[in-house]
Amino acid sequence: MMGRESAPQSSLFYTGINLDKRVRSDHVLRKVARLVDFDFVYGEVKESYGYNGNVSVPPPMILKLMLLLVLYNVRSERELMATLAERLDWLWFLGLDLDSEIPDHSVLSKARKRWGVELFRGFFERIVWQCVGSGLVDGRKLFCDSSLIEADASCNSVVDTQGLERYLNPAYRELEARLEAQEEQEEDKDDPQDSSPRQNVVNQRYTSTTDSDASVVRKGQGKAKLHYQTHRGIDGAYGVITATMIGPGDENEAHRLGDLIEAHHDNSQRNAEVVVADSKYGTTANFLECFDRGVLAHIPVLKQTQDQQERRRRIFPESLFVYDPQTDTYACPAGQSLRRRKHWVERQAFEYVTARGVCQQCHLRIQCTRSQSAGRTLKRHERQEILDNLRAQAQSRSAKRDIQIRQHFMERSFAQGKRFGLKRARWRAQWRVQIQDYLIAVVQNIQLLVAHAWPKPRAMLAKAMDGGIKHSQQWRSWFLLPWSISSDHFFRQFAFAV
User: Fold this and answer.
1) Which part of the chain is CATH 3.30.420.10?
2) Which of 36, 234, 364, 433 is at a distance of 20 to 30 A from 494, taking alpha carbons?
3) 303-316 pLDDT per residue, tens
4) Which architecture, in CATH terms, is 136-301+394-445?
5) Distance between CA atoms of residues 16 and 345, nearest Å
């Protein structure tokens, strides 16, 4: 007998409804709830709340809401709250019921401002250490790269801070006062990430009235837009993000290599043995810093790129000049000598030049220099012998293989991050974009935990019994997580990739 739909009529009472039964057993949020301990936030933010007044939304629920915002790449916080009542899985994950009151969207923005960046940095570091405890971080090989993030601001908001119009228009004076107040706040934060050098002179004159921290950057042949820049360090074992930081869009990424190596060590308690990056990181300072840290630098030499550019300009590259350590001179292709003239203290280099008038009379002058008044000059670093050995090692077969792996290894990580909103900033100001960056990195690392961590605990627990695990205090806290007391059915239920 064929059934027919009855007229829709809302029931006054619902009985026997259990959200836990409505959420399927292999749902990703079940795995996240088992893997991640959100209750740590109570101790981190207790100083941000008073002891009387209205009761706030529980901090773990706020952190879960922010995680949902990134995990499902919801367009806005208003849309997140509007959709929350329709999603039974979200309600279950947050510990709410069908008739529970939905928090207001402003709760999230207030919590970000109240908690600051430090809590989200701590959240990211806890997940990294959990990946270390699960055996997903080897720590010996670190891949580094950067990517641009489009700021939540239009280029129409960019103004010339040195133009005459700002003195004539009262709105510009109001803007100037607001920007000065923001600068004072940033100075009070004393964030060491803001000390990196900028390379775009345009951004020293032009600023955005919407987001003054964003920088005008032209990517390729496209239009100039306001951007931030994210810098990442990824472990070579499973692709766990062990270090991430946000900087201005016009920042030279080479200056962040040392910070990434340091953050990788602090977050994973592992010393990197090899660092792999592209040619933009192949500066003299980075090679020497890696040498001082005892790290192999598998990085294309930036000097070779400059030599190739000189060859295209039909100018003799520096590699054609032969150095004689006995006389401390260079011999040019024409056979003339370049002698030491000056010591650059800041660059830690010596300058070599020819005698006056030699280059002007040389028949190879057009192929050697474009200078009309002076001759060809060369600079030699104080530690040039070490640099030559490091650059030669960067051309080895293993280095070339790592550089080739880095290309798709890093691009895959950034491409996955764009699924969670890495392409464009959700909020304005650098510290808010840093929070977004931490949350995206947390989501990507949780994906790896869900995919690879489930079969691990028993084998690793047996290894711990044999005394093979160091850092006992951290490992002990890891084994006290919920999965260590779960049954065989739990492992069979969740031991697969998402």
Assistant:
1) 136-301+394-445
2) 234
3) 666 666 666 677 88
4) 2-Layer Sandwich (3.30)
5) 78
Q: Round to whole Å and give the CA distance between 293 and 285.
A: 12
CA distance 306 to 360: 24
Give me the residues paired with residue 322 across strands: 331
Average pLDDT over residues 1-8: 72
Q: What are phi and psi of 187, to 5 degrees?
A: -65, -35
Mean pLDDT of 349-372: 83
3-state helix, strand, coil in the chain (%, to 5): 50, 15, 35
Contact in structure between 252 and 426 (CB atoms under 8 Å): no
Query: Given this model, what pLDDT does residue 179 score?
Result: 54
Q: How does pLDDT run across 67-110, given as a tens digit for each residue?
A: 999 999 999 999 999 999 999 999 999 999 888 899 999 999 99
296: β partners: 274
User: Per-residue DSSP letters for 118-187?
Assistant: HHHHHHHHHHHHHHHHTT----SEEEEEEEEEE-SS-GGGEEETTSTHHHH-HHHHHHHHHHHHHHHHHH
Whole-angstrom distance, CA of residue 144 vs CA of residue 410: 8
